[in-house]
Design a protein that fits this description.
Oligomer: single chain
Order of helices and strands: HHEHEEH
Mean pLDDT: 91
Helix content: 40-55%
Largest sheet: 3 strands, antiparallel
Shape: elongated
Strand order of the largest sheet: 1-2-3
Number of helices: 4
Length: 115
């Protein structure tokens, strides 16, 4: 589920790169599952009252093959701009951007060990 914004970052990152690097396809290849949650809906399922604002937050829960879990989130500044599909796209991008430095550290650690 690469998005346009992530594709642009990937293209810029790949330009001229000849050494090992973290890439969007590499991140996505290591994903075991991706789950989207509307926060307000989830709160209501617990029997608690959810504020109107909580229905605007979208969470993207990514579980990696090694069991690590990352959460991306998205919420519009103005409630009138809430769009469920946009929320999913932006939350997914947030999760991938959160994973990128962690996988960068892992790659750097492997490169150091191999040197």
């Amino acid at each position: 589920m690469s998005t346009q914004s992530l594709s642009a970052s990937e293209a810029l990152s790949a330009r001229g790169a000849t050494a090992p690097r973290v890439s969007v396809p590499r991140i996505e290849d290591q994903m075991e599952s991706v789950i989207y949650i509307n926060l307000g809906d989830a709160i209501e399922r617990t029997g608690q009252d959810a504020s109107a604002a909580s229905h605007l937050m979208t969470l993207c829960v990514v579980t990696m093959r090694n069991g690590f879990v990352e959460v991306g989130k998205s919420a519009p500044a103005s409630p009138e701009n809430f769009d469920r599909e946009k929320g999913r796209v932006f939350a997914y991008e947030d999760a991938v951007r959160n994973l990128w430095p962690k996988l960068g550290y892992s790659l750097r650690d492997r490169l150091h060990a191999d040197a």
